[in-house]
Design a protein that fits this description.
alpha/beta, 44% helix, Rossmann fold, single chain, 236 residues, seven-stranded parallel sheet
Length: 236
């Protein structure tokens, strides 16, 4: 039986983040999500926050701590894409993706670590992507941001590991979200050809792995990258 925890998920108003919140709620945890607009699932506390702004992150954490107690599990999920080929990619296309996906995770983890160090317990879970290790044409910015999370988790593990804090990365492949639903049938079929499992994952399949990493059962796992990609990346 897993201990009930206070969980904060960034970008929990849609896609994988929304499913993460649903899974943690179903397991009985106290769940808060950050969103720039919209809200998380029923049973979650939604706080408005922008991961590119430290002050807004600090305010969101303070609100969650006041309403739900110290945050014990943080899932850095908020992310953006600005896909284009290298020669067309502007400096802003690159830096804005890094600022949300990588620097955003840094801001969130830094604020979360204060309470975790005090409690001598914490679960930090960073949502990366198969692209972070596999690479993808037209995604130099996104792939760089997502592979950076791996170096972050491993450094956090070395720095905070003796204080009862774990830091791990989950790297999803293609997931059934609004984004993949917009792809043409032909494009979807082409992608599925490269996935040994022959299908996309459901968001819930990612959520269950994340929830397990946050559980007592995963207390001795840290600095790991867990792919949820149907074999696409083969642990690259």
């Amino acid at each position: 039986m897993t201990t009930i925890r206070t969980v904060l998920i960034t970008g929990g108003n849609r896609g994988i983040g929304y499913s993460l919140a649903e899974e943690f709620i179903a397991q009985g945890h106290r769940v808060a999500v950050t969103a720039r607009s919209g809200k998380g699932p029923e049973g979650s506390l939604t706080v408005l926050a922008d991961v590119t702004d430290s002050a807004s992150i600090d305010a969101a954490f303070s609100q969650v701590e006041a309403e739900l107690g110290p945050i014990e599990v943080v899932v850095a999920n908020a992310g953006v894409t600005k896909d284009t080929l290298l020669l067309r990619m502007t400096e802003d296309d690159f830096t804005s993706v890094i600022d949300t996906n990588l620097s955003g995770a840094f801001r969130v983890v830094k604020r979360a670590s204060k309470g975790m160090l005090k409690a001598r317990f914490g679960r930090i879970i960073l949502i990366s992507s198969v692209v972070g290790l596999y690479g993808s044409a037209g995604q130099v910015n996104y792939a760089a941001s997502k592979s950076g999370l791996i170096g972050m988790a491993r450094s956090l593990t070395r720095e905070l590991g003796s204080r009862g804090i774990t830091a791990n990365v989950v790297a999803p492949g293609f997931i059934e979200t609004d984004m993949t639903a917009e792809l043409s049938v032909e494009t979807q079929a082409e992608y599925k050809k490269n996935i040994p499992a022959g299908r996309f994952a459901t968001p819930n399949e990612v959520a269950r792995v994340v929830a397990w990493l946050a559980s007592d059962d995963a207390g001795y796992i840290s600095g790991a990258v867990i792919p949820v990609d149907g074999g696409l990346g083969m642990g690259h």
